[in-house]
TrEMBL record:
It is found in: Cell membrane. Pfam families: FtsX, MacB_PCD. The lineage of its organism: Bacteria, Bacillati, Chloroflexota, Chloroflexia, Chloroflexales. Keywords: Cell membrane, Membrane, Transmembrane, Transmembrane helix. GO terms for molecular function: transmembrane transporter activity. This is ABC transporter permease. Residues 296-405 form the ABC3 transporter permease C-terminal domain.
């Protein structure tokens, strides 16, 4: 009996192909949008996360604490980082190779950089060779800083893409030729040994000029020492082995710094940690919100499609009133009639959903191929779309089916 009802439902769709297609349009759009959006949203999130990792998210940045934070200690230089903190973390890094890869200082000062008559503002960063191991530094020409540069306090520097472009022009040949030229930084001459390629984003080096820490402190900028604590650090970057040990690495850093800085028990940390999970969590939240909103719109489209199915099924009941009367006169029960019309509504919903899913799969694969990214199909979204379509078909088809089932045979046969 069920097979016969399914066959009759499909025959009804084939008998009114164009009307069935128009009825399914809302379901097709809703199911297709749901699958496409969730699949592309997952692909985009994975791609962005990979790019963040490539840019150097396998690191923890130690920054000065907020002196205005509730519970901050009222002591001179509260929260500022110094070379003493760097040495303590350097010892920790060497002692825990299972957690940490390397460590690099950042001493940042806004200054003027000049080449001939052209001058630009730049962020001068004193660091060492380990910086290139903590952050991605895509060199366009030349090299990055070396241990020898730091030891000798050499007057050398590496310029970011934007600085090199503003000083020497955007032509690639001009950027390549910048290596070996002398520029003035804070009024002092340094020789360019490397040019970094463009790398926008949250960890960009485009507007920076890098110099050895000793060069910056002794030859370029003075007055950077904290009383009794040595050279002031803007940031301390610590490379971690992988993202899975972030919590353990963070706990080790906090314990080491609290001990080195003699932070009393119960007092808040007078430093801050910025981890890659924070940036990734923000991105994930934004992506999830956008994906969820579009998925909600797709769900509304499915509901609208369900209303269309209810409407057309009510029309079908009216058109087939005499047929219903004949069937009931020949012995069909109310349940048989109810089942037939529910199955027809379910068939409309599921077929429309399948058409939308197939179209969405084709679109996702095409976009992934064109964009050059891996765009796997979200089979969870496919399952949700089919399940939702099933509920839509049954839910919106039940009222018209029940109306058909409750028709009296005599009245139905008299209907013109």
């Amino acid at each position: 009996m069920l097979n016969e009802q399914i066959s009759m439902a499909l025959d009804s769709l084939r008998a009114n192909k164009f009307r069935s297609l128009l009825t399914m349009l809302g379901i097709i759009i809703g199911a297709g949008t749901l699958v496409a959006v969730l699949s592309l949203g997952n692909a985009l999130q994975s791609s962005v996360f990979e790019q963040f990792i490539d840019l150097g998210t396998r690191r923890i940045a130690v920054a000065p604490g907020d002196p205005n934070a509730k519970g901050a200690r009222n002591v001179p230089g509260y929260g500022l980082l110094s070379i003493q903190d760097y040495r303590a973390l350097e010892a920790l890094s060497n002692a825990r190779p299972d957690l940490f890869r390397t460590i690099a200082p950042e001493v940042a000062v806004n200054t003027e950089v000049r080449a001939g008559t052209t001058a630009v503002r730049a962020l001068l960063v004193g660091t060492n060779a380990a910086y290139a191991e903590v952050q991605t530094v895509p060199l366009l020409a030349g090299r990055f800083l070396t241990e020898g540069d730091e030891t000798s306090g050499a007057r050398v520097g590496v310029v970011g893409y934007q600085i090199a472009r503003d000083l020497f022009g955007a032509d690639e040949a001009a950027l390549q030729a910048a290596v070996g030229r002398t520029i003035e930084v804070s009024g002092q001459p340094i020789t360019i040994v490397g040019v970094i390629g463009e790398n926008g984003g949250p960890f960009t080096t485009d507007g920076r000029v890098f110099a050895p820490v000793n060069t910056l402190r002794l030859r370029l900028v003075g007055g950077l020492d904290l009383p009794g604590r040595g050279l002031q650090m803007s940031t301390i970057l610590i490379g971690i082995t992988n993202e899975q040990i972030i919590d353990e690495a963070e706990a080790a850093i906090i314990s080491t710094l609290r001990s080195a800085r003699a932070v009393p028990e119960g007092a808040i940390n007078d430093f801050e940690l910025n981890t890659p999970t924070q940036a990734l969590s923000v991105l994930s939240g934004i992506n999830g919100a956008i994906t969820g909103f579009i998925a909600l719109v797709a769900g509304i489209s499915l509901v609208v499609g369900g209303i269309g199915i209810m409407n057309i099924m009510l029309v079908a009941v009216t058109e087939r009133t005499r047929e219903i009367g004949v069937r009931k006169a020949l012995g069909a029960s109310d349940g048989d009639v109810l089942g037939q019309f529910v199955l027809e509504a379910l068939a409309l919903s599921l077929v429309g959903s399948l058409i939308g899913i197939v179209g969405a799969i084709a679109i996702v694969l095409a976009i992934g191929f064109a964009a050059g990214i891996a765009a796997p199909i979200s089979w969870t979204a496919v399952g949700i779309a089919l399940l939702f379509a099933t509920f839509i078909g049954i839910g919106f088809g039940f009222y018209p089916a029940r109306r058909a089932a409750l028709l009296q045979p005599i009245e139905a046969l008299r209907y013109e």
